[in-house]
Amino acid sequence: MSDGIKFFTAQLKYGEVAQFQLMTTAPWGMHYIRGAIIMSQATNAEAVVWPKCGRWFASTPASREATEAAEAWILAHWRAWRDKR
User: Fold this and answer.
1) Would the pLDDT of 1 be above 50?
2) Which end of the chain is more exposed for a tag (fewer CB within 10 A), N or C?
3) Can you tell me the distance from the alpha carbon of 25 to that of 31, in angstroms, rounded to the nearest whole number?
Protein backbone atom coordinates (compact mmCIF):
# COMPACT_ATOMS: atom_id res chain seq x y z
CA MET A 1 0.00 0.00 0.00
CA SER A 2 1.29 3.43 -0.90
CA ASP A 3 -0.35 6.75 -0.06
CA GLY A 4 -3.70 5.10 0.60
CA ILE A 5 -3.92 3.17 -2.66
CA LYS A 6 -3.89 -0.62 -3.01
CA PHE A 7 -3.37 -2.64 -6.17
CA PHE A 8 -4.71 -6.10 -7.01
CA THR A 9 -3.52 -8.35 -9.83
CA ALA A 10 -5.36 -11.63 -9.11
CA GLN A 11 -8.73 -12.63 -10.61
CA LEU A 12 -8.84 -9.76 -13.09
CA LYS A 13 -11.48 -9.29 -15.76
CA TYR A 14 -10.49 -9.66 -19.41
CA GLY A 15 -8.37 -6.70 -20.51
CA GLU A 16 -7.44 -5.51 -17.03
CA VAL A 17 -3.81 -5.07 -16.05
CA ALA A 18 -4.69 -4.41 -12.39
CA GLN A 19 -7.42 -3.13 -10.12
CA PHE A 20 -6.97 -0.34 -7.59
CA GLN A 21 -8.74 0.67 -4.41
CA LEU A 22 -8.50 4.03 -2.72
CA MET A 23 -10.34 6.11 -0.15
CA THR A 24 -12.18 9.14 -1.48
CA THR A 25 -14.55 11.81 -0.19
CA ALA A 26 -18.16 11.89 -1.33
CA PRO A 27 -21.05 14.13 -0.22
CA TRP A 28 -22.11 11.36 2.20
CA GLY A 29 -18.61 10.90 3.66
CA MET A 30 -15.47 8.88 3.07
CA HIS A 31 -15.69 5.62 1.14
CA TYR A 32 -13.55 3.25 -0.90
CA ILE A 33 -13.73 3.13 -4.68
CA ARG A 34 -12.34 0.34 -6.80
CA GLY A 35 -11.39 0.93 -10.41
CA ALA A 36 -9.21 -0.78 -12.99
CA ILE A 37 -6.12 -0.15 -15.04
CA ILE A 38 -6.29 -1.39 -18.62
CA MET A 39 -4.15 -1.25 -21.75
CA SER A 40 -5.91 1.17 -24.07
CA GLN A 41 -6.51 -0.28 -27.53
CA ALA A 42 -6.48 3.22 -28.99
CA THR A 43 -3.14 4.37 -27.56
CA ASN A 44 -1.54 1.11 -26.38
CA ALA A 45 -0.88 2.84 -23.04
CA GLU A 46 -2.13 2.11 -19.56
CA ALA A 47 -5.36 3.91 -18.71
CA VAL A 48 -7.63 4.25 -15.68
CA VAL A 49 -11.21 2.97 -15.76
CA TRP A 50 -13.33 4.53 -13.04
CA PRO A 51 -16.03 2.49 -11.26
CA LYS A 52 -19.53 2.74 -12.67
CA CYS A 53 -22.96 2.61 -11.12
CA GLY A 54 -25.20 1.51 -13.96
CA ARG A 55 -24.41 3.74 -16.94
CA TRP A 56 -22.86 6.57 -14.91
CA PHE A 57 -19.38 6.84 -13.40
CA ALA A 58 -19.85 6.49 -9.67
CA SER A 59 -16.66 8.18 -8.54
CA THR A 60 -14.56 10.62 -10.50
CA PRO A 61 -13.06 13.97 -9.53
CA ALA A 62 -15.24 17.01 -10.19
CA SER A 63 -13.47 18.50 -13.21
CA ARG A 64 -11.68 17.16 -16.27
CA GLU A 65 -8.39 18.61 -15.04
CA ALA A 66 -8.82 17.00 -11.61
CA THR A 67 -9.71 13.67 -13.26
CA GLU A 68 -6.60 13.80 -15.46
CA ALA A 69 -4.44 14.67 -12.45
CA ALA A 70 -5.96 11.80 -10.43
CA GLU A 71 -5.39 9.37 -13.29
CA ALA A 72 -1.75 10.47 -13.61
CA TRP A 73 -1.32 10.01 -9.84
CA ILE A 74 -2.88 6.52 -9.93
CA LEU A 75 -0.75 5.43 -12.91
CA ALA A 76 2.45 6.79 -11.31
CA HIS A 77 1.74 4.82 -8.13
CA TRP A 78 0.84 1.74 -10.20
CA ARG A 79 4.14 1.87 -12.08
CA ALA A 80 6.13 2.34 -8.86
CA TRP A 81 4.28 -0.60 -7.23
CA ARG A 82 4.66 -2.81 -10.32
CA ASP A 83 8.36 -2.05 -10.69
CA LYS A 84 9.04 -3.02 -7.04
CA ARG A 85 7.62 -6.51 -7.57
Assistant:
1) no
2) C
3) 6
